[in-house]
Records
---
Amino acid sequence: MVGVSTQLGRCVLKRLVVDLNRIPSILLQTFLTVAEAGQISEAARRLHLSQPAVTGHIRRLEANLETTLFIRSANGVSLTERGAHLRERVQDVFAELEQILRELDRTREVSGTLTLAASTTVARYFVPKIFLRFHHYHPAAALHLIVGNTEAVLRDV
């Protein structure tokens, strides 16, 4: 992040530092789940957490941000105006993060040819599943299988 300030008519750029420990991502994930579910109990079920844990996350987030994010009622919870704004921004940030991670995964893509030697029995019963799984995770890679009896395969390795 970059902030801009002026000093005696000059424009000075300064880097803003964000303390990521102030708001752990689990609090934001809990916030989004509660906002989507509209109920603490349903959010707890979706997150595989207890209701007190979810309530604690929301209270901690509200305390860290020094604002109320939800209006609580007997029917569940609804977002305050500031809560709705936070939800929109956090969803954007998480979507951007997911896109960055997808881009990083693409640059790590495996390519080339993988050659595997296997005995007849292994090639018939185990290799097809292995090849399918490998191809699922690395579609750009080619696979080459050499099949032979155990002695020949061990000799070739």
Note: The chain has a mean pLDDT of 84.
---
Amino acid sequence: MIAFVTPPSPVWFFARSAGFISLVLLTISVSLGILFSLRRRSRTWPLFVTDQLHSYATLVFFVFLGLHITTVLLDPFTKFNVTDVLVPFLSPYRRVWMGIGILAAELALALAISGWVRSYLGYRVFRVLHYATYVILPLALVHGLATGSDTKSGWGLAVYVGCVLCVGGLTVVRLRENAPSWRPIRFPALAAGAAGMGVLVLWIANGPLASEWVKASGTPASLLSPAPTPSPSPLPTLALAQPFVDNVTGTVATSSSTEFSASGSAVGTVPLTWVLHVLANQDQSIGGTLDVKKDGASICSATVSRLTDQGFVATCTPANATGTITLLLTLQQGSASQVSGQLQVSGANNAGG
């Protein structure tokens, strides 16, 4: 579950993938529509280019478009609501460019609906409405370039360029081979297309490919600043200014002539847990450790230096404290393996000898 709410989540990858697939399918649908409108008949004319194939490509496009919208809505990073993804120019995230994408999607839906009710509209009205296709694809391209996080990647740019070249090339062919009644508008249309391409290239270079585009495109400030890295909690330290004494209880794990280990808890001024492990050397000296923790965090891993009549004496210097702490652990054997006693914490050299 964590993977689905930590940006960038898998939902975001699905949204990006569905967006690119939708754009490619839209390009295929438009290209098939242009090819079918040419109505060429020759031995080299591909027989698979039919109106049914065009309709099928359009249907699959809407499936992936729906997936794109749904996954964008579910993505936890941008936190869109239904209004943001359905009503143009209301989203706080890159408002203009998101609005253009929503407008393209809704124009495509309206155009598809006009195809379903073509018999009621009449062929002439339907054909005029169908020219909106030449607006939908540029809007979708601008939306993808301006909002997509893969615009600066080589493969992302290759997809966009491929879509433009495919539809642009077929549009030029259509203008050159259409009926004589189109001749008066061929040159203006070609000139306008060339000018549009130039504007698009300049806009891409100075917009989506620019270093400051993320901010300039209208990304909310809350998404621009990286999430603050939580500072690690300071290690707890023993109170050096005021010595204290806690009552301890514990359990003996090992007890022999050469080794002794026990662990338990301390209650009183500073509730603690402790673990003692000591070994006897051949010269009758001892060595070992006394680990002290507070709330599960180690605050002192002391070195046991000697055993006195009062108990085990150990010293340590916590990493985030000033001075050396002396610990005196006094233990008395109880029933079975139980022990009890006191833990005295003081400044250096204040423990009894």
Note: The chain has a mean pLDDT of 81.
---
Amino acid sequence: MTRFFIKHRKAVTRGIIALVVLACLTLHGFMLKEVHYTITSPKLTGKDSFTIALITDLHGCYYGQNQKTLVDLLVKNKPNAILLGGDIYDDKIAFTHTDALLAQLSDIAPTYYVDGNHENWLPSAQYQAVLAKVQQHGITVVQGKQVSITNTNIHLYGVSDPASGGFDKDLQTVGKLAQPQHLNILLSHRPEHIEDYRAYPFDLVMSGHAHGGQWRLPFLLNGVLAPNQGLFPKYAGGWYQFFDGGQTTHLIVSRGLARESTRLPRFFNRPELVFIDINKR
């Protein structure tokens, strides 16, 4: 054995280094990241600023006892609203950790929910039970609905995931309700439908689903592969802006919170909890 190592010392050393690098990258992909965006909108009334926490793609993953890591970040940032952007539950993973988080959210801030594809992959009865459970936690389901945020002119809208079969109807319903004089926010799991969203006067669209493209090359490649976008996704994660004459649409795509649930480890693509500050000026 000693002779083997002496003879193949360089190859063994390279192998050990490669394993250490792989282990470090994998661990890095488990480290939660706190992400902040600031958007200015003269439409905001009633407050000088409004903070939103965006949670997507939890997939039932574990973030400490009673999800303490996530809860502590939320409490620290004091959001005015919490938006749950789909795939909070998973069709293959136990609901334990998701339930532990959702049970605490409405005590932090008013919380709003739309589903994702994984909730829709649950058996019908189980899916309905999930919706009932969400509402029992004091969370408002906004699929196909409009909600006016108290003491502001912010109107929040939601659409169900395309896997539900109700996406087009929901979007048409809420799109017709959206009036340009309001600050209109759309919560939708899928970012790749941005061109459909831009047909309506939404100022801000919040999504997830892409998991940050799973693997990233910092400063070179924002993501390698995302569901329903394929290789090198255009909307893997981040802040995107679109200008249509006098209408500006902001798209915020969270890289999500999935980690141990993913088939492949995340490289240079940490799970994230997103906070959006909307300032009047």
Note: The CA atoms of residues 16 and 22 lie 10 Å apart.
